[in-house]
Design a protein that fits this description.
By secondary structure, the chain is α+β, with helices and mostly antiparallel strands. The protein is built from two helices and five strands, in the order E-E-H-E-E-E-H.
């Protein structure tokens, strides 16, 4: 089976790579069967998803989540750090909108 890069997620607890909830739901199954493995990072758009609450997470709200998202951004974009908004712009999260 061919899994495309844009459909993969990284578990931010154990760094395992699984297909998204929109493909075969392996990331969702991983989260359901492993306590604490609820937050994942999309390799496509670098968005952060929480399986426990069913919502996207502002990567800038947590230092560990930010570090993971920033490392992925650097790997994807040739070392360029992920831009951060300042407090006047609404916080410390990435400038991309997480929908």
């Amino acid at each position: 089976m061919l899994i495309f890069f844009f459909k993969l997620q990284v578990c931010l607890h154990c760094c395992s790579v699984r297909c998204s909830r929109y493909v075969n739901e392996h990331g969702l199954l991983h989260s359901a069967s492993n306590d604490g493995h609820v937050v994942c990072l999309s390799l496509a758009d670098l968005s952060v998803w929480c399986h426990a609450c069913g919502e996207y997470v502002d990567a800038g709200g947590d230092d560990d989540v930010w570090a993971a998202a920033d490392a992925a951004h650097k790997a994807k974009f040739g070392g360029q750090p992920m831009p951060r908004r300042n407090k006047e712009q609404g916080g410390g999260g990435p400038t991309i909108l997480m929908q």
